[in-house]
Specification:
Pfam families: zf-C2H2. Helices cover 39% and strands 13% of the residues. The protein is built from 6 helices and 12 strands.
């Protein structure tokens, strides 16, 4: 169905979108201008929509977590978060890759995995031109060139820091007396 100009009076000057309601139009324009008029009083983070601010405050700044895990007692602020967590206990992996059959607990992890089949690696290191499927992998890689070691050990008296989170996790096991096997 085409949008008749008479029924869609608000036209975005930046893209092709049109709106019936001025409130929707104003919210959309903010995505182009970067205006974020709704600010969290607690942490200062700003938002385009008041509903996003309310959701942020509920999820980030209240300790109201009425959904407990029946297996470990950890509590969550949303039923969906609890459901995702419980999959770890139950070993559920309902999302299967259509290319190779590998299963995942989260749809987002499966979608991320599927990029490995396409060969597309859009995140390119500006120093050495190595390519990555995920921006987070590029960020970790860039520490090699900069010498940055942003992952610091929180153990009292330990001043070690690491270029990647995996190396820190391996190091933390030393403090607990556990060792990771070489096959991991």
């Amino acid at each position: 169905m085409t949008r008749s100009p008479g029924f869609w009076p608000y036209h975005c000057p930046f893209c092709v979108k049109t709106y019936i309601w001025s409130s929707d139009y104003r919210k959309h324009i903010r995505t182009h201008t970067g205006e974020k008029p709704y600010v969290c009083d607690t942490c200062g983070k700003d938002f385009i929509r008041s509903s996003d601010l309310r959701k942020h405050e509920r999820n980030m700044h209240t300790n109201d977590k009425p959904f407990p895990c029946a297996h470990c007692g950890k509590t969550f602020n949303k039923p969906l978060s609890l459901k995702r967590h419980e999959r770890k206990h139950l070993g559920e992996r309902p999302f299967s890759c259509p290319d190779c059959g590998k299963a995942f607990a989260l749809a987002s992890r499966m979608a991320e995995h599927q990029k490995t089949h396409t060969g597309v690696r859009p995140h390119v290191c500006p120093v050495c031109s190595k390519c990555f499927t995920k921006s987070s992998n590029l960020t970790e890689h860039e520490a090699i060139h900069s010498g940055a070691r942003p992952h610091k050990c929180a153990e009292c008296g330990c001043d070690k820091s690491f270029q990647c989170a995996a190396k820190l996790a391996q190091h933390v096991l030393n403090h607990t007396g556990m060792q990771m096997s070489e096959s991991n």
